[in-house]
């Protein structure tokens, strides 16, 4: 909305913001928030940025996901996965996903998952986002504290739990974390 003559624009108030997840959405969210002058903390359950593009050969002990005590594996990619979109349509608008002249990189138009992960890692390094990330830190609970109009986050890193207060929270953990299994009477009892 245009300002009337003689009125200065309202300054942006810096906020302390939590971003949950260091995949593509979390990384670009953290960058944009920091560009706007906010203090940002990114919580990442894994040990590196990349989200669902981080491959692991491990599989869950209950692949349907019904057993709440199962060993949980947080990855959606498989070893031979390649993108179904060309690389030039996958990159961020101001950080193109171009092929690198490097024998360890995948120059194909439809690259493998490792190349996408490396692109996201390059992005995080380029914009200093990796320094904002708390790796191997799981968010256990997020709750709004009405009296303070703030968000309280309980996180766990290894065996240490921590409570922190944030002005805002952005959830960027994707939708591939918890399987959605329909209940069909008579099945999976």
TrEMBL record:
EC number(s) on file: 1.-.-.-
Record-annotated membrane-spanning stretches: none
Pfam families per record: FMO-like (PF00743)
Superkingdom field: Eukaryota
InterPro entries: FAD/NAD-bd_sf, Flavin_mOase-like, FMO-like
Keywords assigned by UniProt, alphabetized: FAD, Flavoprotein, Monooxygenase, Oxidoreductase
GO MF annotation list: flavin adenine dinucleotide binding; N,N-dimethylaniline monooxygenase activity; NADP binding
Cofactor: FAD
UniProt enzyme class: oxidoreductase
Entry's family note: Belongs to the FMO family.
Entry protein name: Flavin-containing monooxygenase
The organism of origin for this protein: Quercus lobata
């Amino acid at each position: 909305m245009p300002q009337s003559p003689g009125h200065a624009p309202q300054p942006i108030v810096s906020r302390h913001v939590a971003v949950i997840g260091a995949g593509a959405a979390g990384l670009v969210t953290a960058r944009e928030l920091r560009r706007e002058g906010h203090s940002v903390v990114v919580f990442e359950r894994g040990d590196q940025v990349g989200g669902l593009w981080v491959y692991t050969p491990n599989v869950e002990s209950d692949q349907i996901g019904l057993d709440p005590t199962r060993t949980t594996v947080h990855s959606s990619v498989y070893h031979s996965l390649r993108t179904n979109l060309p690389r030039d349509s996958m990159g961020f608008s101001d950080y193109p996903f171009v092929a690198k002249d490097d024998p360890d990189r995948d120059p194909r138009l439809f690259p493998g998952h490792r190349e996408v992960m490396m692109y996201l890692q390059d992005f995080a390094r380029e914009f200093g986002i990796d320094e904002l990330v708390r790796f191997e830190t799981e968010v256990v609970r997020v709750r709004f504290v009405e009296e303070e109009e703030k968000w309280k986050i309980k996180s766990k890193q290894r065996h240490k739990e921590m409570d922190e207060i944030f002005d805002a929270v952005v959830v960027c953990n994707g939708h591939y974390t918890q399987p959605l299994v329909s209940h069909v009477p008579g099945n999976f009892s």
